């Protein structure tokens, strides 16, 4: 079945998300003629890979379960032009490992690692991790760490950087865990790549998400692996 990659737009004027109100948006998707931020569109976990390195782009796209095309409107040429891709961070890291013979790729990887280390707030991350394990005692420890690190990156706008996240609001923390389960433990990303609308895809994977969360709350064991239905 042919894949249908989501299209992400870099807006030319200030726009705010029609769902959460966040803005101005650096990148967005358009649903029903309304702007939606990447976090509400379930694309906030992806990282931007600028166009220019053909080999790196191809490998990152091939390794990424979910990816999106980033475009910007060129007013002079009256057309949308491709700026790059949004891909999974692990897929980009794997692609860079495949391109390590290229000195430029090695330099880019070091720069990304430095930015990522600088973006982490160890205190916020550890506090969030502890709260995840308190609410979900059977969540694997390394998974709790992964969720906390992702959710608390500085400048990300993710739940760990919001007022609710910093105050350890139960709903905000649970939302971060739920988002991770959606992308890692269900076929949600695959459904998006097959062109299933976001809201329909969420409905289809909701029972699987709840099963994982119940297991983690009650001590019922580890989550199943990501499906590919």
Can you offer a commentary on this structure?
The chain has 229 residues and is α+β, with helices and mostly antiparallel strands. The protein is built from 9 helices and 6 strands; from the N terminus they run ββββαββαααααααα. It has helices spanning 54-63, 89-98, 103-119, 122-135, 141-151, 163-166, 170-184, 188-193, 198-218; strands spanning 7-9, 28-31, 34-37, 46-50, 68-74, 79-88. The strands form 2 sheets. A 4-stranded mixed sheet has the order 1-5-6-4. The chain has a two-stranded antiparallel ribbon with strand order 2-3. β2 (28-31) and β3 form a beta hairpin. α1 crosses α2, α4 (122-135) crosses α5 and α4 (122-135) crosses α7. It starts with 6 loop residues before the first strand and ends in an 11-residue tail after the last helix.
Q: What can be said about this structure in brief?
A:
The chain is of the alpha+beta class and 229 residues long. Helices cover 47% and strands 14% of the residues.
For the structure shown, list the relevant keywords.
alpha+beta, 4-stranded mixed β-sheet, single chain, 229 residues, disordered C terminus
How would the blueprint of this fold be written?
Elements: E1 7-9, E2 28-31, E3 34-37, E4 46-50, H1 54-63, E5 68-74, E6 79-88, H2 89-98, H3 103-119, H4 122-135, H5 141-151, H6 163-166, H7 170-184, H8 188-193, H9 198-218
Parallel strand pairs: 1-5
Antiparallel strand pairs: 2-3, 4-6, 5-6
Main sheet specs:
4 strands, mixed
How many E-type strands? 6
How much of the polypeptide forms β-strand, as a percent range?
A: 5-15%
Specify the structural class. Answer: alpha+beta
pLDDT < 50 stretches: 155-166, 220-229
How confident is the prediction overall: mean pLDDT? 84
**How many angstroms does the end-to-end distance come to?**
12 Å
Radius of gyration, CA atoms, in whole angstroms: 18 Å
User: Can you write the helix and strand succession as a string?
Assistant: EEEEHEEHHHHHHHH
How many helices does DSSP assign?
Answer: 9
Main-sheet strand order equals 1-5-6-4
Helix share, percent: 40-55%
